[in-house]
Amino acid sequence: MPLTVSQSTITNPQDRGGFIVAFQEQQDFIRQKVNIPTARWDDIKTSGHDRGFMVAGAAKADLLTDLRDAVEKAVINGDGLDRFRARFDEIVAKHGWEYKGGRNWRTRVIYETNILASYAAGRYSQLTDPDLLKVRPIWVYHHRDSVQHPRPLHKLWGLKPVALRHDNPWWRTHFPPNGWFCHCWVSAAREGQYPLSEAPNDGMVEHIDKQGNVTVLPNGIDLGWNYTPGRTWSPQVDKYPHPIAKALVSDYAQDGVLVRWHNRLERQLEGWKALPEFAGLKGDGLIDALRKAGVIPFEQLVVGVIAAEIKALLASNSQALILSADTVVKQLVKREGQPIDAQTYANLQAVLDQAQVVKQVDGNKVAYWHQDGKIWYAVIKVTQDRTENFLVSLRLARPSELKKNLSADEQRLLGIEGK
Asked: How confident is residue 312, by pLDDT bands cut at 50, 70 and 90?
């Protein structure tokens, strides 16, 4: 895939205190997140922020949606802190939100954290572009010396500077930002452009939170920042070989974001059903009404990585399997009474890996069959441009369907022949 950013963009951030306004990868990162209501800032940890948008204490979906809109405008349009604060005040007044902390401190935390993290994730996407890695495989740590309160270790890492190969494990915990309001950044360099350094070993420190939980972190890294922003970002799936991509998705499927997202949609559905315009509607009638009203959010998560042979059968250019909010809501409405919940989707990778029968069904749809005490049926649809694969249906298969649709050999593979 050819580079789509200029070299100056990769190595010399200029605007807004050292952070480029609205380059494409940064926009893509902030837009792909799903809203996760939370009570505390650490309800979502480390790489969970790659997929979940949260503001501590914003537990109502409509409040979080408005805050998300204000943050997106700040990141994508390059709005300054004053403009964000004006929007924040309007949102607080509208919802009667009682948040913790002073207004100026709280708004700065929300504003800068999202700009810094989205910038870092966008840069990570640029820096890991295979074409760039071929010519610039060295990553160099930079400290922004104009910050008001420089961290000594961050400044030291930038002065050396730390120059390591992109795959050095040090970057897993030290890719900036490395703390609240950290403005450090990373550039890509050619072999020989900088003398390679040893990965710094500055010792470890213990962080004890208010609940008494102990977390051991590298010295110089704030609690919650010991990860690489963007490393588990869903669009990155197709950059990796199948085993690595599968491991990434399997890991983050279990980190709580998917389950929290599903549960949030389930609560929202109950709220919509109580509204007069949807009262009494069921099944397809309810789904059609919800879609027509535009209340289902445009959100999606990658929930699995498909094998090469299935990708070929789909004639798809992507190995990522995507679950949309629309499908979650549809499943909640139409699969009532079936044991399909949030954890079902979190475990979907295991189902894909163990599928015994794969069939082409109804044109561009593919059905996966899996035996795990019960027989599961999943349908995948590929977009017209072949760039995305969506899970559009998941349910328990009825015995009559199995007898009708499967050959004797396929029934034997599933262990249901003669039953």
From this structure: confident
